[in-house]
């Protein structure tokens, strides 16, 4: 078979990426490989680049392309869908555009003017300047269509309305990458790149027969190491199924709805460019909520969706009436996906652009769950939002979920899958109305009552001291707990801003600490020897890693400074110290000394806050003393009285925590 160059492929062809295709999925690795292929290619040789598969567009479809009909019926261009190879073609077009933008407008590349190159590959304009068409691009309804025209090709498209998605960011990255690579090259060097791109890269070109099932073909094709995601496969399958309802007048509208839904999903999956969301995680959690949950693992959700639920057999010749797939069922599922992705985004980005979708209390609890971990509650919470439950009860559900996760997993050290099956099933029950949100919140409270066990928390901390030797310092809940305590102190003091950043607190920068031992691990300074020298090595270790001796820092601190004396830690004389840090640091800075009794008293204060904040009981002072590992240490007896903690509920910080614990 004859190999075709890019110039051959674009010979009087109009190329569109159809609506069932994914957007531009290549990332840095694939783009770099493409560039290196061209760069390393000798000018007198060719490079086989892969397969391009095209599907002729039927007249009843291209008749809708109002802006392109003049080029098809008047000039004689043949319209095609790009079924396979769109990633390579799109990359070629981005590089071509970058080339044209990297040379003077009056330059010539291989005896071609910039205007003639644009007319051949990108933008064809009639002599009268009235009719204009893009030679290569996406179908109109694809969310990347406007972005490709305006931001990549740099043309005015009419509406100039584009939506940024994960795919459009890939387009933007590729163009910037190519422009950066071309920036240091001369016009002659760029002309050589252009020649290699348009003449020396060779493709196998296939025009598939109309009898071939293009949807099935698309599902089985491979795109140079970038297989289709589950969300992409599902979109293709649903569009394919829409074509099978031949006698149903709603099939065209269903296809429009599918495209709209996927446009929305890709918009919200990539809405926060700093933290793009996983399409697979969204699809799996939605499946758990929307369909009856099973214990099957792995890729069970996509196997169910493609192999069992949304397949051609269930439309054309179902095995039983129960398996019959109706167009309304597909439509309802698509609508649910589109509605759910908005809430899914704000579940993970509660404070993004001050969303009006959530109440302030909901934002607070969602932020806590994001820091602590949602664990198995995502489908249940998603269900509460999608089913439009009472906002006050949704807030209680969020608080109950946070309490459940902290008390059962961070304190009681229960197995990580405790309650999973029940809560997954509840998400479906809540969605369809067979269980009320009041029932769900009550059930969570009962689970805590049944499985919370402070003795297991004590055993876990003892194990940390025996095995890790680091006690509370390596307790998996210590940073979350101390951050919550910091926020309570800030709220209690009515401080508007917080100096303690969660991102800083959880960071693990080499040779720096964000969680400090006030009494240091290496207490060589005379200050520490004078106050702790009477204790043996084990007693000192117990106190070093006791909860009351751990302090969250508002800024990362060099590890070598941890051994400073307490007065220097409070204020080093250079404007840095506890006195100028987080609220927790300010509180510790008020203490004139740091001795064993200060560690003990602060530890008890923190444990009392824990009891109030999560509405639990840890035990009497003796139990807390054992938990803190301050028992039997001189100057840390029960006779040492401490001031205690103000009731956290008085500050309003707990946000209905007592009500949540039903």
Describe the structure.
The protein is an alpha/beta fold and 662 residues long. The chain folds into three domains: 3-226, no CATH class; 241-451, no CATH class; 457-657, no CATH class. It is 52% helix and 9% strand. The strands form four sheets. Strands 1-10-3-4-2-9 form a six-stranded mixed beta sheet, with helices on both faces. A two-stranded antiparallel ribbon has the order 5-6. Strand 5 and strand 6 (112-113) form a beta hairpin. Helix 17 packs parallel to helix 19 (391-411). The radius of gyration is 32 Å and the shape is globular. Residues 639-662 are annotated as: Disordered. Residues 7-238 form the GmrSD restriction endonucleases N-terminal domain. InterPro entries: GmrSD_C, GmrSD_N.
Mean pLDDT: 88
Low-confidence stretches: 637-662
Q: State the share of residues found in helices, binned by percent.
A: 40-55%
Global morphology: globular
Looking across the biggest beta sheet, what order are the strands in? 1-10-3-4-2-9
Radius of gyration, in angstroms, nearest whole number? 32 Å
Gap between N and C termini, in Å? 73 Å
Structural class: alpha/beta
Strand content: 5-15%
Q: Specify the number of helices.
A: 31
Compute the number of strand runs. 12
Provide the number of structural domains. Answer: 3
Q: Biggest β-sheet: count, sense, barrel?
A: 6 strands, mixed
């Amino acid at each position: 078979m004859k190999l075709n160059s890019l110039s051959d492929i674009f010979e009087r062809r109009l190329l569109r990426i159809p609506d069932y295709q994914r957007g531009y999925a290549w990332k840095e690795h694939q783009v770099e490989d493409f560039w290196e292929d061209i760069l390393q290619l000798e000018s007198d040789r060719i490079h086989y680049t892969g397969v391009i598969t095209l599907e002729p567009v039927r007249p009843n479809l291209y008749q809708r392309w109002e802006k392109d009909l003049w080029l098809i019926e008047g000039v004689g261009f043949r319209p095609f869908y790009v079924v396979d190879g769109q990633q390579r073609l799109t990359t070629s077009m981005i590089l071509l555009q970058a080339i044209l933008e990297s040379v003077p407008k009056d330059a010539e590349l291989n005896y071609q003017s910039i205007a003639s190159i644009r007319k051949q590959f990108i933008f064809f304009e009639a002599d009268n300047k009235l009719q204009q068409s893009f030679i290569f691009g996406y179908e109109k309804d694809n969310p990347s269509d406007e972005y490709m025209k305006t931001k990549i090709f740099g043309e005015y498209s009419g509406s100039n309305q584009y939506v940024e998605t994960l795919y459009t960011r890939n387009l933007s990255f590729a163009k910037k990458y190519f422009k950066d690579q071309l920036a240091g090259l001369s016009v002659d060097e760029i002309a050589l790149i252009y020649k290699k791109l348009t003449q020396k890269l060779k493709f196998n070109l296939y025009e598939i027969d109309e009898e071939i099932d293009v949807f099935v073909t698309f599902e089985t094709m491979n795109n140079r190491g970038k297989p289709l995601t589950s969300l992409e496969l599902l979109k293709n399958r649903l569009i394919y199924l829409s074509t099978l309802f031949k006698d149903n007048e709603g099939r065209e509208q269903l296809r429009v709805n599918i495209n709209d839904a996927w446009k929305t999903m890709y918009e919200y999956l990539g809405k926060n460019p700093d933290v793009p969301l996983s399409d697979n995680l969204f699809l799996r959690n939605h499946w758990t909520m929307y369909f009856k949950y099973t214990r099957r693992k792995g890729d069970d959700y996509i196997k169910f969706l493609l192999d069992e639920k949304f397949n051609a057999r269930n439309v054309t010749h179902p095995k039983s009436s129960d398996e019959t797939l109706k167009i309304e069922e597909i439509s309802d599922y698509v609508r649910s996906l589109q509605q759910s992705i908005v809430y899914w985004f704000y579940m993970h980005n509660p404070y993004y652009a001050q969303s009006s979708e959530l109440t302030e209390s909901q934002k607070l609890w969602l932020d806590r769950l994001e820091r602590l971990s949602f664990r198995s509650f995502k489908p249940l919470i998603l269900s509460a939002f999608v089913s439009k439950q009472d906002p006050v009860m949704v807030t209680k559900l969020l608080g109950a979920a946070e309490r459940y996760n902290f008390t059962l997993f961070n304190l009681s050290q229960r197995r990580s899958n405790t309650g999973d099956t029940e809560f997954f099933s509840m998400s479906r029950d809540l969605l369809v109305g067979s269980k009320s949100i009041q029932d769900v919140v009550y059930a969570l409270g009962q689970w805590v009552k049944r499985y919370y066990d402070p003795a297991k928390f004590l055993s876990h901390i003892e194990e940390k001291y025996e095995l890790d030797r680091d006690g509370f310092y390596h307790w998996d809940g210590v940073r979350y707990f101390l951050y919550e305590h910091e926020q309570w102190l800030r709220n209690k003091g009515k401080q508007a801003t917080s100096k303690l950043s969660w991102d800083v607190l959880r960071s693990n920068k080499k040779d720096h600490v964000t969680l400090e031992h006030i009494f240091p691990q290496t207490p060589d300074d005379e200050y520490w020897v004078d106050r702790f020298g009477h204790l043996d090595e084990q007693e000192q270790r117990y106190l070093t890693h006791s909860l009351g001796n751990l302090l969250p820092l508002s800024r990362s601190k060099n590890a070598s400074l941890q051994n400073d004396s307490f007065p220097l830690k409070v204020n080093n004389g250079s404007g840095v110290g506890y006195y100028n840090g987080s609220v927790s640091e300010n509180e510790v800075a008020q203490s004139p000394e740091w001795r064993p009794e200060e560690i003990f008293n602060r530890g008890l204060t923190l444990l009392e806050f824990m009891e109030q904040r999560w509405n639990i009981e840890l035990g009497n002072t003796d139990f807390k003393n054992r938990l803190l590992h301050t028992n039997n240490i001189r100057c840390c007896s029960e006779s040492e009285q401490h001031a205690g903690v103000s009731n956290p509920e008085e500050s309003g910080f707990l946000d209905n925590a007592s009500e949540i614990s039903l």
